[in-house]
Structures are given as structure tokens and as C-alpha cells.
């Protein structure tokens, strides 16, 4: 990744999120730091993974050619506020967090659950940077952000 992309488009945010995700996956594989899981852990984990697939798929499809992992929107990008983006402003982040939590529950990894919390904090700060870019680029974004929650429908 070039230095320009790392700084101007927010590439370090992308690098950081993939490092945290790799740590979550690794925590699920390594058998240290696990708890004895039960049916509840399995069911909740599976449901979260299904939610992740749904939100993630709808987020990718709805964004279409506007999709980028970077906080800064594409130069020729359009503001998308329809579909799943009418429910939450960052459905792909929601999907990744649900998938990470679901995976941690399915693999009974306390470390994975804690790292999912770390990833949530990371996405909070990444989304703040992303939303500054969006407000600068799209004048209607501020009104949209006032009516649609960030990660959890009607909650946050």
C-alpha cells in the first residue's frame, strides 16, 4: 500500500481492521482462552453469523460500484442511503462485528469476544473519520446521519 493511500484515503484504518480480524480468527483456532460453550452460545453465535451474512450481502449489493474499504469515498462515488443503508449507516461494519462475535461464540473464545469489542471501538473511530469525509463530500449526509443510526437499527 503506497504512503499516499495510507494517509489520504485512510489506508491505516483498513490495515488495522484486518490485523484485528486476523487476531479474532487466530483466537478461535488456538485452544487457549476458551470457555465451555453450550447450546445458547451455539445458537446465538449462529444467529449472529446469519445476521452478518444478510447485512454484509445487502451492504455490498446496495453499494455496488461505490464499495471501498477505505474511509474516504471514491472520487466518482455517490451517496447511498437506500436499501440496508436506510436501516443503518454502516451495515458492512455491523456485519463484520456480528460475524466476529458469532464466530467467537461458536469457537467459545473469550479472547475472540474481547477482540470483537476492540474491533467495535476501531470501527467507531474509523466511521467517525469516514463520516467527516462524507459530510465534506455530500451536503445531505448530515441530515441522513440525524435520522439513521450508525450500527444498530434504532439503537446506535
What does this structure look like?
This protein is mostly helical. The chain has helices at residues 3-8, 11-29, 39-63, 91-106, 110-137, 141-147. The protein has one domain: Four Helix Bundle (Hemerythrin (Met), subunit A) (Up-down Bundle), CATH 1.20.120. α2 packs antiparallel against α5 (110-137) and α4 runs antiparallel to α5. It is globular.
Binned, the helix content reads 55-70%
- The tally of beta strands, per DSSP, is 0
Number of domains: 1
Q: What is the CA–CA distance across the termini?
A: 33 Å
CATH topology (fold) name? Four Helix Bundle (Hemerythrin (Met), subunit A)
Unreliable stretches: none
> Please, what is the average pLDDT?
93
Estimated share of beta-strand residues = under 5%
Oligomerization status of the protein chains: single chain
Q: Which structural class fits the helix and strand makeup?
A: mainly alpha
Largest sheet: none
CA-atom Rg in angstroms: 16 Å
Can you tag this structure with a few keywords?
0% strand, mainly alpha, 65% helix, 156 residues
Topology record:
Elements lengths: L2 H6 L2 H19 L9 H25 L27 H16 L3 H28 L3 H7 L9
Helix pairs in contact: 2-5, 3-4, 4-5
Summarize the structure.
The protein has helices at 3-8, 11-29, 39-63, 91-106, 110-137, 141-147.
